[in-house]
Amino acid sequence: MKLYDYYRSSASYRVRIALHLKGLSYDAVPISLIDGEHQGDDYRHTNPNQRVPSLENEHGPLGQSLAIIEYLNEIHPDPKLLPSDPWQKAQCRSLAMLIACDIHPLNNLQVLNYLNTELGVNQNQKMVWYHHWIERGFSAFEQLLMQRTTPTDFCCGDQPTLADLCLIPQIYNARRFNFDLDPFPLINDIDRTCQLLPAFQLAHPDHPIKE
């Protein structure tokens, strides 16, 4: 498999965690979002949406991180990244989508660049925007964690799931942009637990070696 990847992309980060949790080898193909490689003709052929990540195998390329992760979970079911119980599975997907659909799209690099270049938003205003959506999303996420009937070390159950794979990269980005995480103790607890696992360490953007 090939993973077209940008090391700081939180969507790519999610997929790297999944690959390492599954113990799957892959060839990393770096695509620089800073240098505009994602907008080049070569990559547009792989992913017409010009986003990362893309996973390519014998079937062809596949975009969208959640689709990639669920595909990996289908073809390599151990360890499971979604609970077996239908209600718990839906709750796990709900937490994951709170990050992937409600927070991340408003704060990704293309949106932040658009605010600067097209709307004339200054750096301070851009940070106000960024912090607003993180605070709103993390407040909801923390409350949902508080409502769990059986608190655990992870978002859903006793092992990492799709929800954790979405949460941890968003925490990394929040710290990069100096967002105060102190008001979110349960989120911080999950982050500390996940950071002890080799799969999360190997997938981390600051890890020097990518497969």
Structural features, described:
The chain has 211 residues and is an alpha+beta fold. It has helices spanning 10-22, 41-46, 65-75, 86-107, 109-117, 123-146, 162-176, 185-195, 198-203, and strands at 2-5, 27-30, 54-57, 60-63. It has a 4-stranded mixed sheet, with helices on one face. α1 (10-22) crosses α7 (162-176), α4 (86-107) packs parallel to α7 and α7 (162-176) crosses α8. The longest helix has 24 residues, at 123-146. It is globular, with a radius of gyration of 17 Å. The termini are close together. The mean pLDDT is 94. One of its GO terms (molecular function) is isomerase activity. Keywords: Isomerase. Belongs to the GST superfamily. Zeta family. InterPro entries: Glutathione-S-Trfase_C-like, Glutathione-S-Trfase_C_sf, Glutathione_S-Trfase, Glutathione_S-Trfase_N, GST_Zeta, GST_Zeta_C, GST_Zeta_N, Thioredoxin-like_sf. This is Maleylacetoacetate isomerase.
Structure summary:
This protein has 211 residues and is an alpha+beta fold. Helix content is 55%, strand content 8%.
Beta-strand percentage range = 5-15%
Q: How many strands, which pairing sense, and closed or not: the largest β-sheet?
A: 4 strands, mixed
Low-pLDDT segments: none
Give me the side-by-side strand order of the main sheet: 2-1-3-4
The average pLDDT score comes to: 94
Basic shape: globular
- Gyration radius, in Å: 17 Å
> How many DSSP E strands?
4
Report the structural category.
alpha+beta
Give the proportion of residues in helices. 55-70%
Number of helices: 9
Distance between the termini: 11 Å
- Please write the string of helix (H) and strand (E) elements: EHEHEEHHHHHHH
Family: Belongs to the GST superfamily. Zeta family.
Protein name: Maleylacetoacetate isomerase
Domain GST C-terminal: 85-211
Keywords: Isomerase
